[in-house]
Write a structure and sequence with these properties.
Layout lengths: L1 E2 L10 E12 L8 E8 L6 E8 L8 E5 L5 E8 L1 H11 L8 E6 L4 H9 L4 E11 L4
Parallel strand pairs: 1-8, 4-6
Antiparallel strand pairs: 2-3, 2-7, 3-4, 5-6, 5-8, 7-8
Length: 139
């Protein structure tokens, strides 16, 4: 598995994810809730992303990772959020916005062309996620 950085990489990478749907997940009784979000990646128009938000404090290093499938235009991400941030986004997602909401992933430097070419050649790529923000329409 390759890291998706290199020549031609985006400095201080950012990916915009457009939310298509979201679900609350509970793996077993007594477990904390997770949020599963289905979205499109604006920078990679043919790619679909499944994003899992979990409740966990992440003090050191990246808060998550984005892994690109080696066989299909699909990415999977897992992001650990502090309880307050998890509750904030959870409350927003309980109401349907008037237009699509967006999540912005602040990543390590990545190269879009390298991600696509590795995927086409059967190699997976990963990108570390350092932070996120969201834009949620109200009216």
């Amino acid at each position: 598995m390759h890291n998706a950085s290199g020549p031609g990489s985006k400095p201080g990478g950012q990916m915009q994810l457009t939310i298509l749907s979201a679900e609350m997940l509970k793996s077993q009784t007594g477990a904390k809730l997770d949020i599963s979000i289905s979205c499109n990646i604006s920078e990679l128009p043919n790619y679909h992303c499944n994003l899992i938000l979990t409740q966990k404090n992440q003090d050191l290093g990246p808060i998550g990772f984005l892994k690109f499938n080696s066989k299909r235009p699909l990415a999977s991400a897992v992001i650990c959020l502090k309880e307050d941030d998890f509750e904030d986004i959870s409350e927003l997602l309980k109401n349907s916005p008037p237009r699509s909401a967006s999540i912005f992933l602040y990543t390590e430097t990545y190269n879009e062309d390298a991600i696509i070419s590795r995927s086409m050649s059967g190699e997976a790529s990963t990108v570390d996620i350092n932070d996120l923000s969201w834009r949620y329409p109200l009216i």
